[in-house]
Each structure stands twice: as structure tokens, then as C-alpha cells.
């Protein structure tokens, strides 16, 4: 009689299971590390680009310019004045101030005996009532007197003029005058010279 022994399945070895688990564990460690490294690289690249790009500076603002401007007003004594120029440029740092090229001031505008002051450059402040003329200043008081200087400050509220520079002038009767400074007031009727005043009278022929 032949005895048949049933076949018994060989036991599953634990080593095979461990072999499959090791690659999985390795991937679990490597993948997060790669992700973190990629994120750090992206952030670092963005920071470098941000540092490389310089912020744009403020856009330059062009000053307001006017051609052939006219400024009018009334002096304290009721006379009108007129300021003209070839150009006027607004001061970017002071909205009340304009810079003038070839300005001309007429005091008593429209009257019988206006006075005129001209120069190469000027700065007018309307609210302050100040007109500063510089460069080849020439004054005509409307009564036969003419003066030349390099600086004149006019109060457009009173019409008075103060010259902070040397002056040279001529008037009726062939009279010439030089001084270190001068002032004009009383509608141009009063001219005061100060500092080393020299006057010369030339006899009429």
C-alpha cells in the first residue's frame, strides 16, 4: 500500500518582504528631500532676481513754461503795474515763484509818466509781492533819469525799488552819478544813492 503524503507549501521567508520594504522606505526619505531642495532653489532664485532688478526711479517732472507771459497788479498808491517777459518757468520747489527771461516791469502802466525797469533775468513771487531783477538792469524813472546796475529788488505792493549793487546813472543837465547802492521810491521821484557817491556835472555847450 502506497502512502501519499500531502505536499506542504514552503514557508514564506521574511527576507523577501524586507527586500520590498527597503526601497519604499528609501523613496519616502529621498522624495521629501528632493521636494524641499527644489523649493529652496526656487525661493533662492526669486530672491536673487528681486535683488538684481532695481526699482525704477521717480519720473522726471518738467517745469511749467509759458511764452510771452503777462503779470498785472495794482500798487499801493493805485497805479497799475505790468510785468512781461519772453519766457516764464515755474519753480518746482516753490509754486509761487517763476523765473523770467528778459523781464520788463512797467510801473504806472497806462499813465502819462510810467517808469520802466528791464534786465536779463528775473524771479517773480506774486504772493510775496517781490520781483528780483538781475543782469544788466536798466531803469528809466520817466522823468529824464536813467540808471544801470546788476541787481534790483522791487516791491510790487508799494512800487519801491532797492538796488543791492553798484549803480551808474545819468540825468538832466548832463549830470552823471555813481554809487555803491541805490533805492527809488515815491513813484520814481525820489532816488537815494549810498556808498562812495560820485556826481559829475558837465556844462552845457
Structural account:
This protein has 205 residues and is of the alpha+beta class. 19% of the residues lie in helices and 42% in strands. It contains 1 helix and 16 strands. It has a 16-stranded antiparallel sheet that branches. A hairpin with a 4-residue loop joins strand 8 and strand 9 (130-140). The longest helix has 39 residues, at 14-52. The chain starts with 13 loop residues before the first helix and ends with a strand. The mean pLDDT is 79.
Task: Provide a concise account of the structure shown.
The protein is of the alpha+beta class and 205 residues long. Helix content is 19%, strand content 42%.
From the spread of the alpha carbons, the general shape counts as elongated
- Radius of gyration, taken over Cα atoms and rounded to an integer in Å: 45 Å
Report the span from N to C terminus: 178 Å
| Main β sheet profile | 16 strands, antiparallel
How is the secondary structure organized here?
Blueprint: H1 14-52, E1 65-67, E2 70-74, E3 80-84, E4 87-91, E5 94-101, E6 104-107, E7 115-118, E8 121-125, E9 130-140, E10 146-155, E11 161-163, E12 167-171, E13 175-179, E14 181-185, E15 190-194, E16 198-201
Antiparallel strand pairs: 1-4, 2-3, 3-6, 4-5, 5-8, 6-7, 7-9, 8-9, 9-10, 10-11, 10-12, 11-14, 12-13, 13-16, 14-15
Name a few traits of the molecule:
single chain, 205 residues, alpha+beta, 16-stranded antiparallel beta sheet, 1 helix, elongated
